[in-house]
Write a structure and sequence with these properties.
The chain is of the alpha+beta class. The strands form 2 sheets. The protein has a 3-stranded antiparallel sheet with strand order 3-4-5, with no helix packed on it. Strand 1 and strand 2 form a beta hairpin. The longest helix has 10 residues. The N terminus is likely disordered.
Amino acid sequence: MENSENNDQMTTLSQVMETLRKRGIHKEFRMNDECQMKYDNSEKNYTPEELLILKTYRFEGDSNPDDNVALYVLQDNEQNLGIIIDSYGADSNYSGEEFDTFLRAIPIQESDEY
């Protein structure tokens, strides 16, 4: 999301999500209760190797650690774009180690485009 129009202006999670939504990136990749990573309205189970992290945004609350959240922009091997949102620290959105292990196994190819 590097351009003069929004440089240094996207400081909150909601601003980043709105900018991504305007670019057509609004579907989520989510881990279900069976620890399977799914794309919105899809039955496909993803492995980390079928995904690529294109951008990571981290937001930290000024006074409350509960406000720490990460937003990841991902692409699957069929060029579908989506996001993962996760509170990090003690209050992760996902219990257990499966999500963290899965996330760490996704290849990263940071792109300034997002």
